[in-house]
Amino acid sequence: MADEAKTSWFQKRFPVRYLYLRTGDDVRAVALKPWQQVVGTCGIAALALWTVVASAGFTLDLMHLGAADRAVERARAASERANADLRARLDTAVVRMTATSGSLDELAHMVERRHVALTQVMTMFRGVDGAEALLVPTVSDPDAPLSPTQRIVGVRLDQETLIDRAENLARTRAERLRLAFRLAGLNPAAYAVGGPGLGGPLVTADDPRALAAILDVDEPFAARILNASTDLSDMRSLTAVSAALPFARPTDARVTSGFGLRFDPFNARPAYHQGQDFAGPLNTAIVSTAPGIVSFVGVRSGYGNTVEIDHGRGFKTRYAHLNSTAVTVGQRVAVGHRIGAMGTTGRSTGVHLHYEVWMDGRPQNPARFMRAGDHLVQ
C-alpha cells in the first residue's frame, strides 16, 4: 500500500505531459516523462539557488567594499581634522603670544626647549630600523618670504610632526610585538620592562607633569614624549625576549598531527598529543627554534632518539623520533642550528618529527609559537 501511495503521489504531481511543436501545418507532440520533469525541476531549482547565493555574495562584497571605502574616508577626514586642529592651535598660540610685548622671545624659548627635548627623543630611537629616515626635521627655505614669527611657528609645527612620527613608530613596533606574544599565549606585560627609556634623571619621570618639569616643556608635549619612550622601551624589551623564545620552525616539512586530543595511531583510542608532528623525507634537517643550551641527547621511551634544548626563562623544546643527532649535551646552539635529522625511531608509524614546547614544566601548543614567529617576520 505504501508503494502504491508513493507511486500515486509521484504520478499525481509529475504526470506525463505533452509539448506540442508546430512547424507550418505539421504538428508534432513530444512527451515529457516524469523523470524528465524531475530532472528539469531540479535543474531549475539548482539554478535558482545558485542565482540567490551568487547575488547574496555579490551584495555582501558590495557592502564590504562600501564599508571599506567609508572607513578610508573616515580615516582621511580624521587626519584632515587633526591637521586642521594642530594648525588652529598653532595659529592661536601665535596670536596670543604676539598680543603682548616680548611674546616672540617667549615663543622662541618654547621652541628651543622643545628642540632640546626632541634631541633626547631622537637619541632614544638610535639603532631602530627605519627611524633615521623617518625622523628627519624639515629644513625650511631660507629665501622664503616669511616673518620671524612665521619661521618659529613653522619650526614648532615640524616639532609636532616629528613627535607624532616618533609616537606612531614606537607604538606600531611595540603593538606588533605585543600581538606576537599574545598569539603565543604569553602575557607581553610580563616580559616588557615598563617605564620611559630615557636616560639620566628622566628614568624617574613616570608621569607627564614630572617629565614636563624636568625637560622644562609644556605638559602635553611631555606626555607625547613619555608615550613614545614607554612604547620604545617595551619594543626593545620584547624584541630582546622574542629573539630568545622558540618562535622559529624546526623544519619546513609538512605539518601533520597537532597539539591536543587525538586518536592514537597504534590503538585508535583518544590520547593527549603534547606536540606538533612534521612529516618529510628521511634525514630531513631539523634545526633549533631558538638559541639555548642542549640539555639532553639520547633515547627516551616512546620518543626514540631525542634532543632537548633549554632556552632559559623556563622554556624548553624537545625534538623526537630523530634518525640521527648532531649536537652534544652542554653545547650552545643558535636559532636555526642543525641538531639532527628526521627519522622514525621510537613509537612511530613513519618518518616524522615530533616537536614539543615546554614552559615552566608544562607542554604548550607549538603552533601558537610558530604563528607568533610568522607574525614577526611578515
What does this structure look like?
The two termini are 69 Å apart. The chain has helices at 2-13, 34-98, 103-124, 131-134, 148-183, 208-215, 219-242, 366-377, and strands at residues 17-23, 26-32, 254-255, 260-263, 270-273, 276-279, 285-287, 292-300, 304-312, 315-325, 332-333, 338-342, 352-359, 362-364. 25% of the residues are buried. It has 8 helices and 14 strands. Helices cover 48% and strands 21% of the residues. By secondary structure, the chain is α+β, with helices and mostly antiparallel strands.
Backbone shape: flat
What is the average of the pLDDT values? Answer: 74
Query: How much strand?
Result: 15-25%
Low-confidence stretches: 197-204
Q: What's the story with the biggest beta sheet? A: 10 strands, antiparallel
Quickly describe the structure:
The protein has 378 residues and is an alpha+beta fold. 48% of the residues lie in helices and 21% in strands.
Topology summary:
Blueprint: H1 2-13, E1 17-23, E2 26-32, H2 34-98, H3 103-124, H4 131-134, H5 148-183, H6 208-215, H7 219-242, E3 254-255, E4 260-263, E5 270-273, E6 276-279, E7 285-287, E8 292-300, E9 304-312, E10 315-325, E11 332-333, E12 338-342, E13 352-359, E14 362-364, H8 366-377
Antiparallel strand pairs: 1-2, 3-6, 4-5, 6-13, 7-12, 8-9, 8-11, 9-10, 10-12, 10-13, 13-14
